[in-house]
Specification:
There is one protein chain. The chain is built from nine helices and four strands. It is an alpha+beta fold. The chain has two domains: 82 residues, Glutaredoxin, CATH 3.40.30.10; 104 residues, Glutathione S-transferase Yfyf (Class Pi), Chain A, domain 2 (Up-down Bundle). It is globular.
């Protein structure tokens, strides 16, 4: 690789989008530097941060900048393809489309659930308040969707692991880790991705001590 990769993320390391981008680069077995920016201090708006959208996560490769985690995964998949690097997306084109469907749905749907079980609670203080009716309805819809997508006992969506497994696992862990009821098969599925070396590397990142005053990531 002629130019090194740098992944810029929120320095609280609790963003679901940063998690997905980190998993993508790590699963691709790409060397990269992880850099944290403080959104509270507006460091993503300072000169020198080259993402045109001003958003993170962002990938830097020399003078090239690319924001948005899905775009980062696509870039990694296309620029560092199989068999030189492990796959991020299914080999079959139909399954590849479904992989992107899962990513889009679990990232943007279930608004009430994401608000009441924010991703910060996956790596910090758990949420103890019960789900509202709206969030409970979201949880039921998520569980039904996941159960309908997964074969009995499956640890991945489409046979081989893919990047959508990271996004779906995170969505399910919002419930599992906060003590909400989840069918054992779905909890086991989520745990399988949560325990991959790429995910364990993310879990192990040092996070700020004490309370974080910025709004939690949904």
């Amino acid at each position: 690789m002629s130019e090194p990769l740098t992944l810029w993320v929120d320095d609280t390391f609790d963003s679901p989008w940063a998690f997905s981008a980190f998993i993508a680069l790590t699963e691709k077995e790409l060397p990269f530097t992880l850099r944290g920016l403080s959104l509270e201090r507006g460091e993503h708006r300072r000169p020198g941060f080259g993402a045109r959208t001003g958003r993170i996560p962002a990938l830097q490769r020399g003078e090239y900048w690319l924001a948005e985690s899905v775009a980062i995964a696509e870039y990694a998949a296309e620029n560092f393809p199989y068999p030189g690097h492990p796959r991020l997306f299914p080999e079959d084109l139909a399954r590849r489309g479904e992989c992107r469907e899962v990513q889009g749905y679990v990232r943007t749907g279930f608004e009430a659930l994401r608000a009441e079980r924010p991703s910060r609670s996956l790596w910090g203080a758990r949420v103890t308040a019960p789900l509202s009716d709206a969030a409970r309805a979201d949880a039921d819809a998520l569980l039904a969707y996941a159960a309908g997508r997964l074969a009995p006992g499956a640890r991945s969506l489409f046979g081989a692991w893919c990047i959508a497994d990271a996004d779906l696992a995170l969505a399910l862990q919002r419930l599992v880790l906060n003590g909400d009821e989840v069918p054992r098969a779905l909890a086991d599925y989520a745990a399988a991705t949560w325990d991959r070396p790429s995910a364990r590397a993310w879990h192990a990142l040092e996070r700020p001590a004490g309370p974080i005053t910025s709004p939690p990531r949904p």
